[in-house]
Amino acid sequence: MNLMELVEELEDLVETSSQIPLTGKVMFDREEFLEVIHEMRLQIPREVQEAKQISSSKDSILESAQSEANSIIAGAKAHAEEIIREDELVLQANARAEEILERANEESRAIREGARDYADELLENTQVNLSEIIKMLNDNRQQLRG
User: Fold this and answer.
1) Which helix (H) or strand (E) element contains residue 20?
2) Cα–Cα–Cα angle for 118, 122, 127, nearest 5°?
3) In three state form, how does the secondary structure of 94-129 look?
4) Which of 28, 99, 121, 123 pairs as cysteine with 17 (C-beta 3.0–4.6 A)?
């Protein structure tokens, strides 16, 4: 028997049972009534039973879903903060690299200028020495000529 047939059987049981006068109440066989109820329970579709089970545990399902959602949101926030930190680190590293490069260029320029000044000074000293030697040679030649 399917569920609808059992409901009809239950209705028949109520309608065919003895009535208690002036009360609107009926008397029926308790065992027969409980047997129909038992058969009805067996005929309840599995989906209805699962729905009932889900309904009874909806609070724990919602709590679990909320917990999972919170966990996902926290993970996403942490990931976003990490990306921002990495971007900040990259920006800081680029700024620091630019600073180092600028300082290296300044030091390089100072070293080149120092080397040029040193070479110029050596050439100037050599020129002075050569001039003195040339003058001395001219003086010596003048003395030889007499």
Assistant:
1) strand 18-20
2) 145
3) HHHHHHHHHHHHHHHHHHHHHHHHHHHHHHHHHHHH
4) 28
Q: Check: pTM over 0.90? Answer yes or no.
A: no
Q: Which two tokens mark 42?
A: 């067996």
Number of H helices, E strands in the chain: 4, 2
* Straight-line distance from the first to the last Cα atom of the chain, in angstroms, rounded to the nearest whole number: 155
| Exposure on the CB side of residue 7, measured as CA atoms within 13 A | 5
As a whole number of Å, the CA-based R_g of the chain is 54
> For residue 44, what is the DSSP state?
S
Q: Which residues contact 17 (CB under 8 A, 6 or more apart)?
A: 26, 27, 28, 29
Identity of the amino acid at 2: N
Long-range Cβ pairs for the range 37-40 (8 Å, 24+): 37/10, 39/1, 39/6, 40/3, 40/6, 40/7, 40/10
SS3 of 39, please? Answer: helix
